[in-house]
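pasting for ref
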Amino acid sequence: MVGSAVKFVRELGKPFLISLGALALAATSGVLAASAFGIGTQDPVRTVTVDVATGPPGPPGPAGAQGEIGPVGPTGAAGDRGPAGPPGPQGDKGDTGPPGPAGESCPTGFSKGILVINAPKGQVTLFTCIKD
């Protein structure tokens, strides 16, 4: 059986085998590129919910003493508004900054997750780094 398989491969010829090898290398490079860019993988996401409730209002504090009302001063006259100045010249273009990090990442001890905050006036959902 192995002998017939070897014979079959030899009959296909060198050009076919080279094409088959090139196709295998192209597929491998596509898989490697996808994993390098993070395509097709996703970190597990967890959800943390925080309920923010308001307690009952506390008792009112004691009233403060009424202070004396001072005399009202005279109102000054409004001045005229001056004209707007001419726009300044455009500055030189700055240097290009360094490249940013590749993709989203969390610092050590943190992982990606969804944070849900339940507040009296509504719910807010955030995608953020959460401490492990």
